[in-house]
Design brief:
Blueprint lengths: L2 H14 L2 E3 L8 E4 L5 H13 L4 E4 L5 H12 L3 E3 L5 E5 L9 E4 L4 H11 L6 E4 L10 H9 L3 E4 L7 E4 L4 H6 L9 E4 L6 H10 L6 E5 L7 H13 L4 E5 L2 E4 L8 E3 L4 H14 L2 E4 L13 H8 L2 E5 L2 E5 L10 E3 L7 H9 L5 E4 L11 H12 L2 E5 L2 E5 L7 E2 L5 H11 L6 E3 L11 H9 L23
Parallel strand pairs: 2-15, 3-14, 6-7, 10-11, 18-19, 22-23
Antiparallel strand pairs: 1-23, 3-5, 4-5, 7-9, 8-9, 11-13, 12-13, 15-17, 16-17, 19-21, 20-21
Helix pairs in contact: 2-3, 2-4, 2-8, 3-4, 4-7, 7-8, 9-13, 11-13
The chain binds shikimate-3-phosphate and phosphoenolpyruvate (PEP).
InterPro entries: Enolpyruvate_Tfrase_dom, Enolpyruvate_Tfrase_sf, EPSP_synthase, EPSP_synthase_CS, RNA3'P_cycl/enolpyr_Trfase_a/b
Main location: cytoplasm
Catalytic activity: 3-phosphoshikimate + phosphoenolpyruvate = 5-O-(1-carboxyvinyl)-3-phosphoshikimate + phosphate
Length: 474
Amino acid sequence: MGPDRDRDEEATAMSAVPTWAAPTSTGPVDAQVRVPGSKSLTNRWLVLALLAGGPSTIVHPLRSRDSDSMIGALRALGAGVDDTDAARWTVRPPRGGLRGGVDIDCGQAGTVMRFVPPVAALADGPVRFDGHHSARARPVGPVLDGLRALGAEIKEEGHGTLPFVVRGGPSDESASSAGGGGAAPPVVRIDASASSQFVSALLLAGAAYPRGLRLEHTGTTLPSLPHVEMTLDALATVGVEVERTSPTSWLVHPGEVRAVDVTVEPDLSSAAPFLALAAATGGRVVVADWPERTTQPGARMRDVLAAMGASTELTPQGLAVRGAPAGRLEGVDLDLSEVGELTPVVAALCALARTPSRLRGVAHLRGHETDRIAALVTELARLGAGARETADGLEIEPAPLTGTRLRTYHDHRMAMFAAVLGAVVPGVEVEDVATAGKTFPGFDRVWSEAVATGTPSGPRAPASPEDRDGRESP
Ligand SMILES: O=C(O)C1=C[C@@H](OP(=O)(O)O)[C@@H](O)[C@H](O)C1
Ligand SMILES: C=C(OP(=O)(O)O)C(=O)O
Protein backbone atom coordinates (compact mmCIF):
# COMPACT_ATOMS: atom_id res chain seq x y z
CA MET A 1 0.00 0.00 0.00
CA GLY A 2 1.53 3.31 -1.11
CA PRO A 3 1.84 6.45 0.98
CA ASP A 4 -0.88 8.23 -1.05
CA ARG A 5 -3.36 5.48 -0.29
CA ASP A 6 -2.30 5.54 3.39
CA ARG A 7 -2.95 9.26 3.48
CA ASP A 8 -6.33 8.90 1.73
CA GLU A 9 -7.44 6.22 4.18
CA GLU A 10 -6.26 8.29 7.10
CA ALA A 11 -8.09 11.35 5.81
CA THR A 12 -11.31 9.33 5.40
CA ALA A 13 -10.98 7.85 8.89
CA MET A 14 -10.27 11.27 10.37
CA SER A 15 -13.24 12.95 8.71
CA ALA A 16 -15.61 10.32 10.13
CA VAL A 17 -15.02 11.20 13.78
CA PRO A 18 -16.22 14.35 15.55
CA THR A 19 -13.69 17.02 16.42
CA TRP A 20 -13.50 19.53 19.23
CA ALA A 21 -12.09 23.01 18.66
CA ALA A 22 -9.59 23.22 21.50
CA PRO A 23 -9.96 26.62 23.19
CA THR A 24 -6.97 28.96 22.96
CA SER A 25 -6.15 31.11 25.95
CA THR A 26 -6.20 34.86 25.48
CA GLY A 27 -3.57 35.26 28.19
CA PRO A 28 -2.28 33.76 31.44
CA VAL A 29 -4.94 31.57 33.06
CA ASP A 30 -5.96 31.84 36.70
CA ALA A 31 -7.96 28.70 37.42
CA GLN A 32 -8.97 26.44 40.30
CA VAL A 33 -9.77 22.90 39.23
CA ARG A 34 -10.95 19.69 40.78
CA VAL A 35 -10.01 16.50 38.96
CA PRO A 36 -11.69 13.06 39.31
CA GLY A 37 -10.37 10.28 41.53
CA SER A 38 -7.30 8.22 40.75
CA LYS A 39 -7.82 5.46 38.22
CA SER A 40 -4.92 3.42 39.57
CA LEU A 41 -6.14 3.63 43.17
CA THR A 42 -9.84 3.11 42.38
CA ASN A 43 -9.16 -0.04 40.37
CA ARG A 44 -6.74 -1.46 42.94
CA TRP A 45 -9.31 -0.95 45.71
CA LEU A 46 -12.00 -2.61 43.61
CA VAL A 47 -9.84 -5.70 43.03
CA LEU A 48 -8.96 -5.92 46.71
CA ALA A 49 -12.62 -5.44 47.67
CA LEU A 50 -13.48 -8.44 45.47
CA LEU A 51 -10.94 -10.58 47.34
CA ALA A 52 -11.82 -9.23 50.79
CA GLY A 53 -13.43 -11.16 53.61
CA GLY A 54 -16.35 -8.72 53.97
CA PRO A 55 -18.08 -5.67 52.45
CA SER A 56 -15.95 -2.69 51.47
CA THR A 57 -16.54 1.04 51.07
CA ILE A 58 -14.76 3.25 48.55
CA VAL A 59 -15.27 7.02 48.96
CA HIS A 60 -14.72 9.50 46.08
CA PRO A 61 -13.94 6.79 43.54
CA LEU A 62 -13.26 7.53 39.91
CA ARG A 63 -16.31 7.09 37.70
CA SER A 64 -14.97 6.57 34.18
CA ARG A 65 -14.72 3.98 31.42
CA ASP A 66 -11.79 2.24 33.17
CA SER A 67 -13.56 1.94 36.51
CA ASP A 68 -16.82 0.92 34.82
CA SER A 69 -14.88 -1.91 33.15
CA MET A 70 -13.52 -2.95 36.55
CA ILE A 71 -16.98 -2.86 38.12
CA GLY A 72 -18.24 -4.99 35.23
CA ALA A 73 -15.50 -7.54 36.00
CA LEU A 74 -16.39 -7.65 39.70
CA ARG A 75 -20.08 -8.16 38.93
CA ALA A 76 -19.33 -10.88 36.38
CA LEU A 77 -17.33 -12.75 39.03
CA GLY A 78 -20.29 -12.54 41.43
CA ALA A 79 -19.63 -9.46 43.55
CA GLY A 80 -22.37 -6.99 44.43
CA VAL A 81 -21.30 -3.44 43.63
CA ASP A 82 -23.57 -0.59 44.67
CA ASP A 83 -22.39 2.50 42.79
CA THR A 84 -25.64 4.46 42.87
CA ASP A 85 -24.09 7.06 45.18
CA ALA A 86 -21.30 8.54 43.06
CA ALA A 87 -19.40 9.62 46.17
CA ARG A 88 -19.50 6.28 47.98
CA TRP A 89 -19.47 2.80 46.52
CA THR A 90 -19.93 -0.44 48.40
CA VAL A 91 -18.67 -3.82 47.28
CA ARG A 92 -19.88 -7.19 48.58
CA PRO A 93 -17.62 -10.06 47.62
CA PRO A 94 -19.51 -13.14 46.38
CA ARG A 95 -20.56 -15.65 49.04
CA GLY A 96 -19.12 -19.08 48.31
CA GLY A 97 -16.32 -18.00 46.00
CA LEU A 98 -15.86 -16.37 42.63
CA ARG A 99 -18.15 -17.34 39.78
CA GLY A 100 -16.69 -18.79 36.57
CA GLY A 101 -18.32 -19.49 33.24
CA VAL A 102 -18.40 -15.75 32.52
CA ASP A 103 -17.08 -13.19 30.04
CA ILE A 104 -15.21 -10.04 31.07
CA ASP A 105 -15.01 -6.95 28.87
CA CYS A 106 -11.78 -5.13 29.76
CA GLY A 107 -12.64 -2.11 27.61
CA GLN A 108 -9.32 -0.31 27.22
CA ALA A 109 -8.23 -0.74 30.82
CA GLY A 110 -4.75 -2.13 31.36
CA THR A 111 -5.66 -2.51 35.02
CA VAL A 112 -8.55 -4.83 34.12
CA MET A 113 -6.79 -6.94 31.51
CA ARG A 114 -3.77 -7.43 33.83
CA PHE A 115 -5.19 -7.31 37.39
CA VAL A 116 -8.29 -9.47 36.93
CA PRO A 117 -6.89 -12.68 35.30
CA PRO A 118 -4.92 -13.69 38.44
CA VAL A 119 -8.15 -13.28 40.42
CA ALA A 120 -10.20 -15.11 37.79
CA ALA A 121 -7.85 -18.07 38.25
CA LEU A 122 -9.65 -18.56 41.60
CA ALA A 123 -13.12 -18.77 39.99
CA ASP A 124 -15.10 -22.00 39.80
CA GLY A 125 -15.03 -22.12 35.99
CA PRO A 126 -13.48 -20.59 32.88
CA VAL A 127 -13.37 -16.82 32.50
CA ARG A 128 -13.01 -15.30 29.04
CA PHE A 129 -11.42 -11.86 28.62
CA ASP A 130 -11.75 -9.52 25.67
CA GLY A 131 -11.87 -5.74 25.21
CA HIS A 132 -11.85 -2.75 22.90
CA HIS A 133 -10.10 -3.43 19.59
CA SER A 134 -7.27 -1.07 20.57
CA ALA A 135 -6.71 -3.13 23.73
CA ARG A 136 -6.09 -6.28 21.70
CA ALA A 137 -2.64 -4.95 20.84
CA ARG A 138 -1.53 -4.57 24.47
CA PRO A 139 0.77 -7.15 26.09
CA VAL A 140 -0.57 -9.51 28.78
CA GLY A 141 1.60 -12.58 28.02
CA PRO A 142 3.81 -12.55 31.14
CA VAL A 143 0.72 -12.54 33.41
CA LEU A 144 -0.71 -15.50 31.48
CA ASP A 145 2.64 -17.35 31.65
CA GLY A 146 2.76 -16.67 35.39
CA LEU A 147 -0.72 -18.13 35.79
CA ARG A 148 0.27 -21.19 33.75
CA ALA A 149 3.18 -21.72 36.14
CA LEU A 150 0.64 -21.64 38.96
CA GLY A 151 -1.41 -24.39 37.32
CA ALA A 152 -4.02 -22.39 35.41
CA GLU A 153 -5.14 -23.51 32.00
CA ILE A 154 -4.89 -20.62 29.57
CA LYS A 155 -6.43 -20.64 26.14
CA GLU A 156 -4.99 -17.83 24.07
CA GLU A 157 -6.92 -16.56 21.09
CA GLY A 158 -4.37 -13.77 20.58
CA HIS A 159 -0.59 -13.94 21.06
CA GLY A 160 -0.03 -12.86 24.63
CA THR A 161 -2.90 -10.42 24.13
CA LEU A 162 -6.68 -10.30 24.44
CA PRO A 163 -8.78 -12.35 23.93
CA PHE A 164 -7.95 -15.32 26.20
CA VAL A 165 -9.59 -17.71 28.63
CA VAL A 166 -8.33 -18.41 32.18
CA ARG A 167 -9.43 -21.59 33.89
CA GLY A 168 -8.46 -22.84 37.33
CA GLY A 169 -5.33 -21.85 39.09
CA PRO A 170 -3.00 -22.24 41.95
CA SER A 171 -3.69 -25.78 43.17
CA ASP A 172 -1.36 -27.41 45.70
CA GLU A 173 0.02 -29.85 43.09
CA SER A 174 0.92 -27.18 40.59
CA ALA A 175 2.31 -25.06 43.37
CA SER A 176 4.89 -27.70 44.21
CA SER A 177 5.69 -28.31 40.54
CA ALA A 178 6.32 -24.57 40.19
CA GLY A 179 9.19 -24.92 42.61
CA GLY A 180 7.42 -24.97 45.96
CA GLY A 181 7.23 -28.26 47.86
CA GLY A 182 5.76 -28.66 51.33
CA ALA A 183 4.25 -25.40 52.48
CA ALA A 184 6.61 -23.27 50.41
CA PRO A 185 4.97 -20.73 48.13
CA PRO A 186 5.07 -21.32 44.38
CA VAL A 187 7.69 -19.33 42.49
CA VAL A 188 6.68 -17.32 39.45
CA ARG A 189 9.29 -15.68 37.24
CA ILE A 190 8.11 -13.12 34.70
CA ASP A 191 9.62 -10.42 32.54
CA ALA A 192 7.71 -7.25 33.38
CA SER A 193 9.81 -4.88 31.27
CA ALA A 194 6.76 -4.14 29.09
CA SER A 195 4.52 -3.16 32.03
CA SER A 196 4.72 -2.83 35.80
CA GLN A 197 1.08 -3.96 35.83
CA PHE A 198 2.24 -7.58 35.32
CA VAL A 199 3.92 -7.40 38.73
CA SER A 200 1.07 -5.53 40.41
CA ALA A 201 -1.42 -8.06 39.02
CA LEU A 202 0.21 -11.08 40.62
CA LEU A 203 0.98 -9.23 43.86
CA LEU A 204 -2.66 -8.14 44.25
CA ALA A 205 -4.00 -11.71 44.00
CA GLY A 206 -1.11 -13.52 45.73
CA ALA A 207 -2.49 -13.54 49.28
CA ALA A 208 -5.65 -15.33 48.08
CA TYR A 209 -3.60 -18.27 46.74
CA PRO A 210 -3.36 -21.24 49.12
CA ARG A 211 0.36 -20.84 49.70
CA GLY A 212 0.85 -17.26 48.64
CA LEU A 213 3.35 -16.48 45.94
CA ARG A 214 7.01 -15.76 45.36
CA LEU A 215 7.34 -13.40 42.39
CA GLU A 216 10.54 -12.54 40.53
CA HIS A 217 10.95 -10.05 37.72
CA THR A 218 13.56 -11.43 35.30
CA GLY A 219 13.87 -8.54 32.82
CA THR A 220 16.54 -5.86 32.80
CA THR A 221 14.19 -2.91 33.26
CA LEU A 222 10.96 -2.45 35.22
CA PRO A 223 8.97 0.64 34.26
CA SER A 224 6.59 2.60 36.47
CA LEU A 225 8.13 1.35 39.73
CA PRO A 226 6.07 3.84 41.78
CA HIS A 227 2.98 1.95 40.62
CA VAL A 228 4.42 -1.22 42.16
CA GLU A 229 4.98 0.78 45.36
CA MET A 230 1.34 1.86 45.15
CA THR A 231 0.32 -1.81 44.98
CA LEU A 232 2.47 -2.68 48.01
CA ASP A 233 1.01 0.25 49.92
CA ALA A 234 -2.56 -0.81 49.07
CA LEU A 235 -1.81 -4.39 50.12
CA ALA A 236 -0.38 -3.21 53.44
CA THR A 237 -3.57 -1.20 54.03
CA VAL A 238 -5.70 -4.36 53.77
CA GLY A 239 -3.37 -6.40 55.96
CA VAL A 240 -1.56 -8.42 53.29
CA GLU A 241 2.02 -9.22 54.23
CA VAL A 242 4.55 -8.81 51.42
CA GLU A 243 8.32 -9.16 51.82
CA ARG A 244 10.57 -7.50 49.29
CA THR A 245 13.24 -10.14 48.88
CA SER A 246 15.24 -8.00 46.42
CA PRO A 247 14.50 -4.77 44.51
CA THR A 248 12.66 -6.87 41.91
CA SER A 249 11.32 -9.89 43.82
CA TRP A 250 8.57 -10.23 46.37
CA LEU A 251 7.12 -12.85 48.71
CA VAL A 252 3.37 -12.53 49.26
CA HIS A 253 2.17 -14.43 52.32
CA PRO A 254 -1.19 -16.18 52.06
CA GLY A 255 -3.89 -14.68 54.24
CA GLU A 256 -7.15 -12.85 54.48
CA VAL A 257 -7.62 -9.58 52.62
CA ARG A 258 -9.28 -7.16 55.04
CA ALA A 259 -12.31 -5.21 53.87
CA VAL A 260 -11.44 -1.96 52.15
CA ASP A 261 -12.52 1.33 53.75
CA VAL A 262 -10.78 4.12 51.87
CA THR A 263 -11.08 7.57 50.32
CA VAL A 264 -9.58 7.87 46.85
CA GLU A 265 -7.16 10.73 46.10
CA PRO A 266 -7.62 12.92 43.01
CA ASP A 267 -5.86 11.51 39.95
CA LEU A 268 -2.59 13.41 39.77
CA SER A 269 -1.90 12.25 36.22
CA SER A 270 -5.28 13.69 35.18
CA ALA A 271 -4.17 16.91 36.91
CA ALA A 272 -1.01 17.08 34.77
CA PRO A 273 -2.56 18.87 31.74
CA PHE A 274 -3.98 21.55 34.06
CA LEU A 275 -0.59 22.08 35.69
CA ALA A 276 0.84 22.27 32.18
CA LEU A 277 -1.77 24.89 31.27
CA ALA A 278 -0.41 27.24 33.94
CA ALA A 279 3.14 26.68 32.71
CA ALA A 280 2.27 27.13 29.04
CA THR A 281 0.31 30.37 29.48
CA GLY A 282 2.46 31.92 32.22
CA GLY A 283 -0.59 31.77 34.48
CA ARG A 284 -1.63 30.09 37.71
CA VAL A 285 -3.64 26.92 38.29
CA VAL A 286 -4.60 25.41 41.63
CA VAL A 287 -5.57 21.73 41.74
CA ALA A 288 -7.77 21.08 44.78
CA ASP A 289 -7.27 18.28 47.33
CA TRP A 290 -3.67 17.57 46.32
CA PRO A 291 -2.49 14.93 48.82
CA GLU A 292 0.42 15.77 51.11
CA ARG A 293 1.67 12.22 50.85
CA THR A 294 0.92 9.99 47.90
CA THR A 295 2.10 6.92 46.02
CA GLN A 296 0.85 8.37 42.74
CA PRO A 297 3.68 8.99 40.27
CA GLY A 298 1.72 11.94 38.86
CA ALA A 299 3.07 13.96 41.80
CA ARG A 300 6.42 13.97 39.98
CA MET A 301 4.95 16.48 37.53
CA ARG A 302 6.14 19.06 40.05
CA ASP A 303 9.78 18.12 39.34
CA VAL A 304 9.17 18.20 35.59
CA LEU A 305 7.64 21.67 35.83
CA ALA A 306 10.51 22.92 37.99
CA ALA A 307 12.99 21.65 35.39
CA MET A 308 11.08 23.55 32.69
CA GLY A 309 10.93 26.81 34.65
CA ALA A 310 7.51 26.80 36.37
CA SER A 311 7.12 26.75 40.14
CA THR A 312 4.74 24.76 42.32
CA GLU A 313 3.64 25.19 45.91
CA LEU A 314 1.39 23.13 48.13
CA THR A 315 -1.14 25.58 49.61
CA PRO A 316 -4.21 25.02 51.82
CA GLN A 317 -6.31 25.31 48.61
CA GLY A 318 -4.34 22.65 46.78
CA LEU A 319 -1.27 22.47 44.56
CA ALA A 320 -0.61 25.87 42.98
CA VAL A 321 1.47 26.08 39.81
CA ARG A 322 2.77 29.35 38.48
CA GLY A 323 4.21 29.51 34.99
CA ALA A 324 7.19 31.68 34.12
CA PRO A 325 6.28 35.04 32.51
CA ALA A 326 4.96 34.69 28.95
CA GLY A 327 4.78 30.94 29.43
CA ARG A 328 8.53 30.68 28.93
CA LEU A 329 9.59 27.04 29.11
CA GLU A 330 13.03 25.45 28.98
CA GLY A 331 13.68 22.22 27.09
CA VAL A 332 14.57 19.18 29.21
CA ASP A 333 16.44 15.89 29.04
CA LEU A 334 14.42 13.57 31.28
CA ASP A 335 14.20 9.89 32.12
CA LEU A 336 10.44 9.36 32.47
CA SER A 337 10.59 5.58 33.04
CA GLU A 338 8.98 5.91 36.46
CA VAL A 339 6.28 8.28 35.25
CA GLY A 340 5.57 7.13 31.71
CA GLU A 341 1.93 8.22 32.06
CA LEU A 342 3.07 11.85 32.07
CA THR A 343 4.93 11.63 28.75
CA PRO A 344 2.19 12.99 26.41
CA VAL A 345 1.60 16.11 28.51
CA VAL A 346 5.33 16.65 29.03
CA ALA A 347 5.88 16.25 25.28
CA ALA A 348 3.30 18.97 24.63
CA LEU A 349 5.22 21.35 26.91
CA CYS A 350 8.50 20.40 25.24
CA ALA A 351 7.06 21.46 21.87
CA LEU A 352 6.32 24.89 23.39
CA ALA A 353 9.76 25.29 24.97
CA ARG A 354 12.60 27.52 23.81
CA THR A 355 15.13 24.72 23.45
CA PRO A 356 15.07 21.06 22.32
CA SER A 357 14.13 18.19 24.64
CA ARG A 358 14.81 14.50 24.98
CA LEU A 359 12.38 12.17 26.80
CA ARG A 360 13.97 8.81 27.67
CA GLY A 361 13.21 5.49 29.40
CA VAL A 362 9.73 5.09 27.94
CA ALA A 363 10.04 2.36 25.28
CA HIS A 364 7.15 0.58 27.04
CA LEU A 365 4.80 3.38 25.92
CA ARG A 366 4.66 1.54 22.57
CA GLY A 367 2.30 -0.90 24.36
CA HIS A 368 0.03 1.68 25.97
CA GLU A 369 -3.43 2.66 24.70
CA THR A 370 -1.68 3.27 21.38
CA ASP A 371 1.98 3.32 20.40
CA ARG A 372 2.40 6.64 22.18
CA ILE A 373 5.91 7.30 20.90
CA ALA A 374 4.76 7.03 17.29
CA ALA A 375 1.56 8.94 17.99
CA LEU A 376 3.38 11.84 19.65
CA VAL A 377 5.97 12.11 16.89
CA THR A 378 3.26 12.05 14.20
CA GLU A 379 1.04 14.65 15.85
CA LEU A 380 3.93 16.96 16.78
CA ALA A 381 5.11 16.85 13.18
CA ARG A 382 1.57 17.64 11.98
CA LEU A 383 1.76 20.88 14.01
CA GLY A 384 5.15 21.75 12.58
CA ALA A 385 7.44 20.72 15.46
CA GLY A 386 10.55 18.65 14.85
CA ALA A 387 10.05 15.27 16.53
CA ARG A 388 11.84 11.97 16.17
CA GLU A 389 11.52 8.53 17.74
CA THR A 390 14.47 7.10 19.62
CA ALA A 391 14.89 3.53 20.86
CA ASP A 392 13.45 4.43 24.25
CA GLY A 393 11.54 7.66 23.75
CA LEU A 394 11.52 10.77 21.60
CA GLU A 395 13.37 13.97 20.81
CA ILE A 396 11.51 17.22 20.26
CA GLU A 397 12.79 20.29 18.42
CA PRO A 398 10.51 23.30 18.95
CA ALA A 399 9.47 25.28 15.87
CA PRO A 400 6.64 27.67 15.10
CA LEU A 401 3.42 25.64 15.42
CA THR A 402 0.33 25.91 13.25
CA GLY A 403 -3.09 24.79 14.40
CA THR A 404 -4.42 21.71 12.64
CA ARG A 405 -6.56 18.67 13.25
CA LEU A 406 -4.90 16.26 15.71
CA ARG A 407 -5.62 12.56 16.04
CA THR A 408 -6.05 10.94 19.45
CA TYR A 409 -5.86 7.19 18.63
CA HIS A 410 -8.44 6.16 21.30
CA ASP A 411 -5.93 7.44 23.84
CA HIS A 412 -7.12 9.69 26.68
CA ARG A 413 -3.66 11.12 27.20
CA MET A 414 -3.32 12.02 23.51
CA ALA A 415 -6.52 14.08 23.94
CA MET A 416 -4.92 15.85 26.92
CA PHE A 417 -1.69 16.40 24.93
CA ALA A 418 -3.71 18.01 22.13
CA ALA A 419 -5.66 20.21 24.56
CA VAL A 420 -2.45 21.61 26.09
CA LEU A 421 -1.11 22.55 22.67
CA GLY A 422 -4.47 24.01 21.64
CA ALA A 423 -4.41 26.32 24.67
CA VAL A 424 -1.45 28.13 23.11
CA VAL A 425 -1.69 27.37 19.38
CA PRO A 426 -4.85 28.74 17.75
CA GLY A 427 -6.75 26.43 15.42
CA VAL A 428 -6.12 23.03 17.01
CA GLU A 429 -9.01 20.64 16.35
CA VAL A 430 -9.01 17.51 18.50
CA GLU A 431 -10.43 14.32 17.09
CA ASP A 432 -12.68 12.33 19.47
CA VAL A 433 -11.96 14.31 22.64
CA ALA A 434 -14.47 12.07 24.46
CA THR A 435 -11.77 9.40 24.48
CA ALA A 436 -10.49 11.29 27.57
CA GLY A 437 -13.39 9.62 29.40
CA LYS A 438 -11.20 6.56 29.97
CA THR A 439 -10.04 8.41 33.06
CA PHE A 440 -11.67 11.86 32.89
CA PRO A 441 -15.29 12.08 31.72
CA GLY A 442 -16.15 15.69 30.87
CA PHE A 443 -12.49 16.63 30.43
CA ASP A 444 -13.31 19.05 27.57
CA ARG A 445 -15.79 20.98 29.73
CA VAL A 446 -13.47 21.32 32.73
CA TRP A 447 -10.62 22.21 30.37
CA SER A 448 -12.63 24.89 28.54
CA GLU A 449 -13.57 26.52 31.83
CA ALA A 450 -9.94 26.60 32.93
CA VAL A 451 -8.71 28.03 29.61
CA ALA A 452 -11.48 30.66 29.68
CA THR A 453 -9.92 32.19 32.81
CA GLY A 454 -7.06 33.44 30.62
CA THR A 455 -7.02 37.24 30.50
CA PRO A 456 -5.28 39.49 28.02
CA SER A 457 -4.39 41.84 30.90
CA GLY A 458 -1.32 39.82 31.81
CA PRO A 459 1.54 38.99 29.45
CA ARG A 460 -0.10 37.35 26.45
CA ALA A 461 0.72 33.71 25.89
CA PRO A 462 2.78 33.68 22.71
CA ALA A 463 2.23 31.25 19.86
CA SER A 464 5.74 30.42 18.70
CA PRO A 465 9.08 29.58 20.32
CA GLU A 466 10.57 32.78 18.83
CA ASP A 467 7.98 34.76 20.78
CA ARG A 468 8.54 32.68 23.88
CA ASP A 469 12.04 33.87 24.76
CA GLY A 470 10.58 36.23 27.29
CA ARG A 471 11.75 39.40 25.52
CA GLU A 472 8.31 40.91 25.34
CA SER A 473 7.41 40.10 28.93
CA PRO A 474 7.28 42.96 31.39
O1 LIG B 1 -0.61 0.09 37.84
C1 LIG B 1 -1.15 1.08 37.34
O2 LIG B 1 -2.21 1.55 37.77
C2 LIG B 1 -0.50 1.71 36.18
C3 LIG B 1 0.80 1.40 35.85
C4 LIG B 1 1.50 2.00 34.70
O3 LIG B 1 1.50 1.02 33.68
P1 LIG B 1 2.83 0.60 32.85
O4 LIG B 1 3.81 0.05 33.79
O5 LIG B 1 2.30 -0.37 31.86
O6 LIG B 1 3.32 1.87 32.21
C5 LIG B 1 0.80 3.26 34.22
O7 LIG B 1 1.37 3.70 33.00
C6 LIG B 1 -0.68 3.01 34.06
O8 LIG B 1 -1.32 4.15 33.57
C7 LIG B 1 -1.29 2.68 35.41
C1 LIG C 1 -1.19 3.45 30.35
C2 LIG C 1 -2.33 3.89 30.88
O1 LIG C 1 -3.44 3.16 31.19
P1 LIG C 1 -3.69 1.63 31.55
O2 LIG C 1 -4.08 1.59 32.98
O3 LIG C 1 -4.79 1.22 30.64
O4 LIG C 1 -2.40 0.88 31.28
C3 LIG C 1 -2.51 5.33 31.15
O5 LIG C 1 -3.53 5.67 31.79
O6 LIG C 1 -1.67 6.16 30.77
